[in-house]
């Protein structure tokens, strides 16, 4: 059963102590009771050091071990407030804002937390898209002048894949591309989309190999109606993504960090119809205890006040 606060008042009342935060993580990590991560034993006793000791293999484990929160030196209450701050705002938060609101000591700490949580926004076992999918690319960033289109320089190429639910957009996936070659495009499509799906693209030659592949390929060619958009759903996602990057992060996102921001946008977009922001809080903490710890040194690039 999904259990989460629906308002800021419920949140503050629910998580008013470290013990309350630990108990919430315990319920998410072991909803059917403790399971030893080493031997699978389903019983344990709690030690004076707040560890759970397995009688089968004598292994001791903390609630936060093996999660995003492992080895943190900050209170879980601060982590929970950070997650609420990020998920309760429609367009999210940046590291500088998080630092100011929560009184986190340094910008680098806030920046690292943000990227750790963006990593948790990707479910390890998430399903690939299926059904009818619009696929297109868009360029992000770059201030250099030069030619437009697939040969643009100084910009980063991103693949957009959108499930179509009638006239509406279903789930999306975003993928950072090295270039617009067939090798890059087809590799990304195979990673993101279930075989047997119907893929709609424009007539770019890079999509040519889809014709003789495990997918059904439909080429959308130019319409005779002036102003028609060939792939309207993918184009809409591209426009909203660029607006979000500009509005929340002032467009100051390094290419080396862009993957993390694409993951955050996908997480938000795919849950845009959620009736409660508290559910996003629940989903993010649920995924934070399901993935392996992320060390600050493992995050691509480094913190800079330009990454806000």
Which shape, going by the Cα principal axes? globular
Return the domain count. Answer: 2
Helix content: 25-40%
- The CATH architecture assignment of the largest domain turns out to be 2-Layer Sandwich
How many β-strand runs? Answer: 8
Q: Report on the biggest sheet.
A: 5 strands, mixed
Level-1 CATH class name of the largest domain:
Alpha Beta
Radius of gyration: 22 Å
User: CATH topology of the largest domain, what is it called?
Assistant: Nucleotidyltransferase, domain 5
Tell me the span between the first and last alpha carbons.
36 Å
State which percent range the strand residues make up. Answer: 5-15%
Which spans have pLDDT < 50 for at least 5 consecutive residues?
303-308
- Specify the number of helices: 9
Order of helices and strands: HHEEEHHHEEEHEEHHH
Question: Can you put this structure into words, describing what you see?
Answer:
With 308 residues, this protein is of the alpha/beta class. It folds into 2 domains: 8-31 and 64-124 and 277-298, no CATH class; 132-253, Ribonuclease H-like superfamily/Ribonuclease H (Nucleotidyltransferase, domain 5, 2-Layer Sandwich), CATH 3.30.420. The chain is 35% helix and 14% strand. It has 9 helices and 8 strands. The strands form 2 sheets. It has a 5-stranded mixed beta sheet with strand order 6-5-4-7-8, with helices on both faces. Strand 1 (45-46) and strand 2 (52-53) form a beta hairpin. Helix 3 crosses helix 9 (277-288). Residues 303-308 have low confidence and may be disordered.
